[in-house]
Amino acid sequence: MELLINIFVNGLATGMLIFLLAAGLTLIFGLMDVLNFAHGGLFVWGAFAAVWTYTATDSFMLAILGALLTGVVLGFVTEKLIIAPVYGNHVQQILITLGFMLVLTEMIKVVFGPNQLAAGVPSYLAGSFEIGDVILIKYRLFIIVTGFVVFALIQFILKRTKIGLIVRAGVLNKDMVQALGIHIKKVFLYTFIAGAALAAFGGALMAPYSGVVYAEMGLEFGILAFIVVVIGGMGSLPGSLFAAILVGLAGSFMAYYVPDLSLAVNMILMAIVLIFRPQGLFAARG
Amino acid sequence: MANLLEMRNVHTYIGEYHILQGVDFTASAGQVSVLLGRNGAGKTTTLKTIMGLHPAKSGTILFEGKPIEKLSTHKIARSGLGYVPEDQGIFSTLTVEENIRVAMRDQSDATAKRINYVLELFPDLKKFWKKNGGNLSGGQKQMLSMARAFIQDSRLLLIDEPSKGLAPVVIGKVIEAIHELKKQSTIVLVEQNFRMASKVGDTFTLIDDGRTVHTGEMGYLIENEEMKRKYLGIG
Ligand SMILES: Nc1ncnc2c1ncn2[C@@H]1O[C@H](COP(=O)(O)OP(=O)(O)OP(=O)(O)O)[C@@H](O)[C@H]1O
Ligand SMILES: [Mg+2]
């Protein structure tokens, strides 16, 4: 029983980290119709920025802020230089964002050195709770709670604010949104920056969870996030949360019971969904 | 009468296709100007070109005397044009209320007044205020789309085939609505249903194969059986 709970909590925490990455990705796709294969690069930059700031200041809050700031700046630059010129052309988007992903990964090595960095957990989030025989690692619970809070916050923005309303309308019909006098390119930029900040935030939370950060982790998590977006339905936030948890749990249970399949399980999940519901589990558009 | 909108020798490409090959069109303030022509003539493309959704490649489009053909769509809309597209452009998973709110530019009394006005004109919208736009009937979607364009205080409304797919009684209501909206705003109407066009239109412009072929008072077209037969296949 303790074992099951631990595998469950572990899977849920991993799922939440993937969700932070997938949330931005799915909105960027749903609204802007942009396939961004560089999204994992924003995640890894967030992770390194957080570790670097944490080492320098010993403050986890500052580390998070550092990551968010990195996400915002990189998001702005990426949208303006890489994404904006290729709106409406998926092939070009795939090529240029994949290329940029490699650049972001290599730049990590240039800026932070070629080796992986160790990442610590702040003392107030270290350790565990014991409930009977069950030992629950605090930091994992922290990630899970944070993930749900972020989900609720994004849902609040989407459902209760004017900008959120415009984003939802834009996912459905971009031409009409513009014909109503809304400068959609600006909304694209804000959405992209928000997505980048979320990815960087995910990276910052990931670092103490895995204990180390390395340049290639962006590629690994970026792929997981894409799988999640496809399973959940491109453009659907609840779909991404559901699929991220599914992928997190599947990975965690498989790693324990059928380790040989633990890497393949996500691909299998995605294949099954694509066969039976090609639009994803929660399609955003009709 | 002053020309609110004036298109001169407008050419538009969609991808590599040369769709509009010289459209001339004017809409006079306070009138209903009807764009007519057979299927595929280029009526919808003309409206999309005015809105900048398929930008003009050459030619000029003046709105209140100022060129708008190079502006992006949101700026064209903000300069005072409202668009009711052929498919109504309703945000299907947004409620009626949210569809209206997307269109609201401010919280002013003037906007509130216009919203009250359209809700009075289209009581169904009030009735289904919290219903998803996608679940409305065809006629109700048409009303919602017109309401949305109207509350922006547009001085010119571009309405694309509002009678399409509607039952005759509902078409009657749309005609009434257009007569009512005409008191507040100038209207450009694309209409295949000639009965409707002749009932609400003041002037007509005939488009054929992407070109303006005729323009005049509606009364002239009503009398001209040959022109109707040649360009509209009726009469
Ligand atoms: N996206 C597009 N790509 C290529 N050709 C298009 C596109 N949209 C429209 N066309 C072509 O442009 C021409 C004009 O189309 P348009 O929709 O403006 O006609 P219309 O007068 O509105 O017709 P209808 O009465 O059927 O609505 C048609 O020949 C159509 O096939
Ligand atoms: Mg048409």
TrEMBL record, chain A:
Question: What species is this protein from?
Answer: Jeotgalibacillus campisalis
Determine if Cell division is one of this entry's keywords.
Answer: no
Q: Which GO terms describe its biological process?
A: amino acid transport
The GO terms describing molecular function are: transmembrane transporter activity
Major site of localization recorded for this protein: membrane
Q: How does it sit in the membrane?
A: Multi-pass membrane protein
Query: Which keywords does this Swiss-Prot/TrEMBL entry list?
Result: Amino-acid transport, Cell membrane, Membrane, Transmembrane, Transmembrane helix, Transport
What residues form the membrane-spanning segments? Answer: 12-30, 37-54, 60-82, 94-112, 139-158, 187-207, 264-284
Q: Where in the cell is it found?
A: Cell membrane
Family classification: Belongs to the binding-protein-dependent transport system permease family. LivHM subfamily.
State what protein this is by name. ABC transporter permease
What is the superkingdom listed in this entry's lineage? Bacteria
Q: Which GO terms describe its cellular component?
A: plasma membrane
Which Pfam family is one of those matched by this entry?
A: BPD_transp_2
Automatic annotation (TrEMBL), chain B:
> Is Nucleotide-binding tagged as a keyword?
yes
Q: Name one GO molecular function term.
A: ATP hydrolysis activity
- Write down the Gene3D superfamilies for this protein, in alphabetical order: P-loop containing nucleotide triphosphate hydrolases
Kindly give the InterPro entries that the UniProt entry links to this protein.
AAA+_ATPase, ABC_transporter-like_ATP-bd, ABC_transporter-like_CS, BCAA_Transport_ATP-bd_LivF, P-loop_NTPase
Q: Which GO terms describe its biological process?
A: L-amino acid transport
Query: Which Pfam families does the record associate with it?
Result: ABC_tran
Ranges for the ABC transporter domain? 5-234
Keyword terms of this UniProt record: Amino-acid transport, ATP-binding, Nucleotide-binding, Transport
The family line of this record is: Belongs to the ABC transporter superfamily.
Its recorded name reads Branched-chain amino acid ABC transporter ATP-binding protein
What organism is the protein native to?
Answer: Jeotgalibacillus campisalis
Taxonomic classification, please? Answer: Bacteria, Bacillati, Bacillota, Bacilli, Bacillales
